[in-house]
Amino acid sequence: MRFFIALEIPEENKPQFQAIQQRLHTLIPQARITSLEKVHLTLAFLGEQEDQLKDKLTDIIKAASAGVPSFEVTPAYIDGFPNIHHPQVIWVGVKGDIDKILLIREGVKDGLESLHLPVDERRFIPHISVAKINNHLKVLRELEVNLEKIMTMSFDPIKITSIKLFESVPEGGFHKHNTLVEVKLI
Question: What is the pTM of this model?
Fold first, then answer.
């Protein structure tokens, strides 16, 4: 099974991501927009693992989120990986209760390391991917300014009430995300 642990974006917040994506697609028509059903904030991507790992991953999520109350984050800025000037992925960064995201992420990371599972050692930046770029796009200053203008919209806070374990299943050249486990925050 192909696992990942993430914070799902509630349905009521998805229209604001759709608005971001529409403006983004106007600026960069070749961008492949992320399906709204797949919009989430990844805490850890595990890739292909044994199916029976599900219970241990559930325990890791429970331990990492123990004592953490529900919290809010708000879309704040737009950026890209590896960077905004040559993006392969365009994403929305968040502000707000970032400390809670980082606390949960560290707990998840520690749990994965205890199981000798691969952990991404790059600096973790809480983000929500909204588009992919397949060709080599060079973002010049004018485009960068226009991308920044997208984020001047007023955004509603995103209420985070649970952590989810997902499986990513290949389907017609893409991947479908299925929720396997939801761990509620206090």
Answer: 0.92
Q: How many domains does the chain have?
A: 1
SS3 assignment, position 88: coil
For the chain, state the CA radius of gyration. Answer: 17
Spatial separation of the C-alpha atoms in residues 88 and 120, rounded to whole Å: 18
Contacts of 135 (CB under 8 A, 6+ apart): 30
E strand segments, the chain = 2-8, 32-33, 40-48, 71-81, 89-96, 127-132, 158-160, 162-171, 174-184
Amino acid (1-letter code) at residue 54: K
Q: Which residue has the tokens 């914070």?
A: 7
Report pLDDT digits (tens) over 90-108. 999 999 999 999 999 999 9
Helix (H, G, I), strand (E, B) or coil at 123: coil
